[in-house]
Amino acid sequence: MPNIEEKSLVVSEIKEKFQNASGIVLADYRGLTVAQVTQLRAQLRNAGVEYRVMKNTLVRRAAAELGVEGLDSYLKGPTALAFCADPVAPAKVLMEFVKVNKLKKFQIKAGVLNGKVIGSEEVKALAALPSREVLLTMVLRGMQAPLTGMVNVLQGPIRKMGYALEEVRKLKAAQ
Protein backbone atom coordinates (compact mmCIF):
# COMPACT_ATOMS: atom_id res chain seq x y z
CA MET A 1 0.00 0.00 0.00
CA PRO A 2 1.56 3.30 -1.04
CA ASN A 3 2.14 5.86 1.65
CA ILE A 4 0.48 9.26 1.88
CA GLU A 5 3.32 11.10 0.10
CA GLU A 6 3.18 8.73 -2.86
CA LYS A 7 -0.60 9.11 -3.08
CA SER A 8 -0.34 12.89 -2.95
CA LEU A 9 2.22 12.78 -5.77
CA VAL A 10 -0.16 10.69 -7.87
CA VAL A 11 -3.02 13.09 -7.09
CA SER A 12 -0.91 16.07 -8.17
CA GLU A 13 0.04 14.21 -11.37
CA ILE A 14 -3.65 13.55 -12.09
CA LYS A 15 -4.47 17.20 -11.40
CA GLU A 16 -1.77 18.27 -13.86
CA LYS A 17 -3.20 15.94 -16.53
CA PHE A 18 -6.70 17.33 -15.91
CA GLN A 19 -5.42 20.90 -16.26
CA ASN A 20 -3.43 20.23 -19.45
CA ALA A 21 -6.17 18.25 -21.21
CA SER A 22 -9.15 19.77 -23.01
CA GLY A 23 -10.72 16.36 -23.50
CA ILE A 24 -10.82 13.49 -21.03
CA VAL A 25 -12.79 10.29 -21.48
CA LEU A 26 -13.49 7.78 -18.70
CA ALA A 27 -14.04 4.20 -19.82
CA ASP A 28 -14.78 0.82 -18.28
CA TYR A 29 -12.17 -1.36 -19.96
CA ARG A 30 -13.50 -4.76 -18.80
CA GLY A 31 -13.81 -7.40 -21.49
CA LEU A 32 -10.70 -6.41 -23.44
CA THR A 33 -8.03 -8.97 -24.19
CA VAL A 34 -4.37 -8.08 -23.73
CA ALA A 35 -3.97 -7.85 -27.52
CA GLN A 36 -6.94 -5.46 -27.75
CA VAL A 37 -5.59 -3.27 -24.94
CA THR A 38 -2.20 -3.15 -26.69
CA GLN A 39 -3.86 -2.25 -29.99
CA LEU A 40 -6.01 0.43 -28.30
CA ARG A 41 -3.02 1.98 -26.55
CA ALA A 42 -1.13 2.14 -29.86
CA GLN A 43 -4.04 3.84 -31.63
CA LEU A 44 -4.45 6.33 -28.79
CA ARG A 45 -0.71 7.05 -28.73
CA ASN A 46 -0.73 7.70 -32.50
CA ALA A 47 -3.55 10.23 -31.98
CA GLY A 48 -1.61 11.99 -29.21
CA VAL A 49 -3.85 10.65 -26.44
CA GLU A 50 -2.51 9.40 -23.12
CA TYR A 51 -4.39 6.35 -21.76
CA ARG A 52 -4.00 5.37 -18.11
CA VAL A 53 -5.76 3.13 -15.62
CA MET A 54 -6.04 5.02 -12.34
CA LYS A 55 -7.46 4.46 -8.88
CA ASN A 56 -10.93 5.96 -8.57
CA THR A 57 -10.24 7.42 -5.12
CA LEU A 58 -7.19 9.31 -6.36
CA VAL A 59 -9.03 10.59 -9.45
CA ARG A 60 -11.94 11.63 -7.22
CA ARG A 61 -9.58 13.51 -4.91
CA ALA A 62 -7.81 15.28 -7.80
CA ALA A 63 -11.14 16.27 -9.39
CA ALA A 64 -12.41 17.61 -6.06
CA GLU A 65 -9.26 19.70 -5.58
CA LEU A 66 -9.71 21.17 -9.08
CA GLY A 67 -13.42 21.85 -8.52
CA VAL A 68 -14.62 19.39 -11.18
CA GLU A 69 -18.08 18.41 -9.97
CA GLY A 70 -20.26 15.49 -11.00
CA LEU A 71 -17.50 12.96 -11.64
CA ASP A 72 -18.01 10.86 -8.49
CA SER A 73 -20.96 8.87 -9.84
CA TYR A 74 -18.84 7.67 -12.79
CA LEU A 75 -15.87 6.58 -10.67
CA LYS A 76 -17.08 3.08 -9.83
CA GLY A 77 -15.49 -0.14 -11.02
CA PRO A 78 -12.42 -0.33 -13.24
CA THR A 79 -11.76 3.05 -14.84
CA ALA A 80 -9.32 4.04 -17.55
CA LEU A 81 -8.81 7.67 -18.48
CA ALA A 82 -7.82 9.03 -21.89
CA PHE A 83 -6.28 12.54 -21.77
CA CYS A 84 -5.61 14.83 -24.72
CA ALA A 85 -5.22 18.51 -25.56
CA ASP A 86 -7.61 17.94 -28.49
CA PRO A 87 -11.10 17.68 -26.95
CA VAL A 88 -12.41 15.34 -29.67
CA ALA A 89 -9.49 12.92 -30.17
CA PRO A 90 -9.99 10.61 -27.15
CA ALA A 91 -13.71 10.18 -27.84
CA LYS A 92 -13.15 9.61 -31.56
CA VAL A 93 -10.41 6.99 -31.12
CA LEU A 94 -12.25 5.09 -28.37
CA MET A 95 -15.59 5.04 -30.24
CA GLU A 96 -13.90 3.95 -33.46
CA PHE A 97 -12.08 1.17 -31.59
CA VAL A 98 -15.35 -0.05 -30.04
CA LYS A 99 -17.09 0.01 -33.43
CA VAL A 100 -14.30 -1.73 -35.37
CA ASN A 101 -13.82 -4.47 -32.75
CA LYS A 102 -17.57 -4.86 -32.07
CA LEU A 103 -17.02 -4.65 -28.31
CA LYS A 104 -20.05 -5.13 -26.10
CA LYS A 105 -18.54 -4.87 -22.60
CA PHE A 106 -16.19 -1.91 -23.14
CA GLN A 107 -18.15 1.18 -22.16
CA ILE A 108 -17.60 4.89 -22.24
CA LYS A 109 -18.58 6.10 -18.76
CA ALA A 110 -18.29 9.86 -19.11
CA GLY A 111 -16.02 12.64 -20.20
CA VAL A 112 -14.62 15.94 -19.06
CA LEU A 113 -14.68 18.68 -21.67
CA ASN A 114 -12.82 21.85 -20.70
CA GLY A 115 -13.43 21.19 -17.00
CA LYS A 116 -17.13 20.24 -17.30
CA VAL A 117 -18.37 16.68 -16.84
CA ILE A 118 -20.40 15.25 -19.73
CA GLY A 119 -22.24 11.94 -19.93
CA SER A 120 -21.55 9.03 -22.25
CA GLU A 121 -24.13 10.21 -24.81
CA GLU A 122 -22.39 13.59 -25.10
CA VAL A 123 -19.04 11.81 -25.51
CA LYS A 124 -20.54 9.72 -28.32
CA ALA A 125 -21.93 12.89 -29.95
CA LEU A 126 -18.49 14.49 -29.63
CA ALA A 127 -16.94 11.48 -31.36
CA ALA A 128 -19.41 11.86 -34.24
CA LEU A 129 -18.20 15.40 -34.99
CA PRO A 130 -16.10 15.80 -38.12
CA SER A 131 -12.39 16.35 -37.63
CA ARG A 132 -10.99 19.83 -37.04
CA GLU A 133 -9.66 19.99 -40.61
CA VAL A 134 -13.07 19.08 -42.07
CA LEU A 135 -14.79 21.72 -39.90
CA LEU A 136 -12.27 24.37 -40.99
CA THR A 137 -12.82 23.40 -44.63
CA MET A 138 -16.58 23.74 -44.17
CA VAL A 139 -16.17 27.20 -42.62
CA LEU A 140 -13.82 28.34 -45.39
CA ARG A 141 -16.17 26.98 -48.05
CA GLY A 142 -19.03 28.89 -46.42
CA MET A 143 -16.96 32.07 -46.45
CA GLN A 144 -15.84 31.53 -50.03
CA ALA A 145 -19.32 30.92 -51.52
CA PRO A 146 -20.55 34.55 -51.30
CA LEU A 147 -17.27 35.80 -52.79
CA THR A 148 -17.54 33.37 -55.70
CA GLY A 149 -21.13 34.47 -56.28
CA MET A 150 -20.10 38.13 -56.26
CA VAL A 151 -17.30 37.48 -58.77
CA ASN A 152 -19.79 35.74 -61.09
CA VAL A 153 -22.23 38.66 -60.80
CA LEU A 154 -19.51 41.20 -61.52
CA GLN A 155 -18.26 39.20 -64.50
CA GLY A 156 -21.77 39.07 -66.02
CA PRO A 157 -21.79 42.55 -67.66
CA ILE A 158 -18.24 42.08 -68.95
CA ARG A 159 -19.23 38.72 -70.42
CA LYS A 160 -22.34 40.26 -72.06
CA MET A 161 -20.22 43.07 -73.51
CA GLY A 162 -17.88 40.45 -74.93
CA TYR A 163 -20.84 38.64 -76.57
CA ALA A 164 -22.12 41.97 -77.98
CA LEU A 165 -18.70 42.85 -79.42
CA GLU A 166 -18.46 39.40 -80.98
CA GLU A 167 -21.87 39.91 -82.66
CA VAL A 168 -20.77 43.32 -83.96
CA ARG A 169 -17.60 41.73 -85.37
CA LYS A 170 -19.65 39.03 -87.11
CA LEU A 171 -22.00 41.65 -88.61
CA LYS A 172 -19.08 43.72 -89.91
CA ALA A 173 -17.43 40.62 -91.33
CA ALA A 174 -20.66 39.64 -93.09
CA GLN A 175 -20.98 43.10 -94.79
From TrEMBL:
Gene3D superfamilies: 3.30.70.1730, 6.10.250.290. InterPro entries: Ribosomal_uL10, Ribosomal_uL10-like_sf, Ribosomal_uL10_bac, Ribosomal_uL10_bac_type, Ribosomal_uL10_CS_bac. GO terms for cellular component: large ribosomal subunit. GO terms for molecular function: large ribosomal subunit rRNA binding; structural constituent of ribosome. The keyword Nuclease does not apply. Keywords: Ribonucleoprotein, Ribosomal protein, RNA-binding, rRNA-binding. GO terms for biological process: translation. SUPFAM superfamilies: Ribosomal protein L10-like. Coiled coil: none annotated. PROSITE patterns: RIBOSOMAL_L10. The keyword Transmembrane helix does not apply. Belongs to the universal ribosomal protein uL10 family. Part of the ribosomal stalk of the 50S ribosomal subunit. The N-terminus interacts with L11 and the large rRNA to form the base of the stalk. The C-terminus forms an elongated spine to which L12 dimers bind in a sequential fashion forming a multimeric L10(L12)X complex. Forms part of the ribosomal stalk, playing a central role in the interaction of the ribosome with GTP-bound translation factors. This is Large ribosomal subunit protein uL10. It comes from Desulfosporosinus fructosivorans.
